[in-house]
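Quick question, first post here. What does this chain look like in 3D?
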Amino acid sequence: MIPIASNWIITLIFAALPISEVRGAIPLAIGVYGFSAVDAYLLAVLGNLLPVIPLLLFLEPISDYLMRYPAGNRFFTWLFSRTRRKYIQDRENFSMIALAIFVAIPLPMTGAWTGCAIAFLIGMKFRNALIAIASGVLVAGAIVTTTVMSIKLLAF
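> Answer (accepted):
Ran it through. Tokens below.
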């Protein structure tokens, strides 16, 4: 049997991963490890927020570094112009609320990792991006926890 502390760490790591995030960590914590809804929620939210600050801080310096090379310059020039042309130009009012709602939707490709990429691409300020993404993660965690607990009650 894996000790409880290891289960916490596994849940935190699972929540920090870009594919699973809270959508995978909460069902894991409740369904596999038997955590309470509150413990699962708190661990998953904390784990999902762990990579947010480094991502928000380092996406720009990494892209700047990669733009020194021809392939990186072509890619980021294409990405930035395409993103601004297709999404931002028509939606200048893309705000913290819109980003928070996007992150809060517990579907694939809508979590904190993608929220960080969007915030970077649209040039959102660090503080605003952090608040919007954290708010979205809190809501997504609540939605997933409620869904998992409802299924658990219905199934058992």
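The radius of gyration is 18 Å.
The chain has a mean pLDDT of 89.
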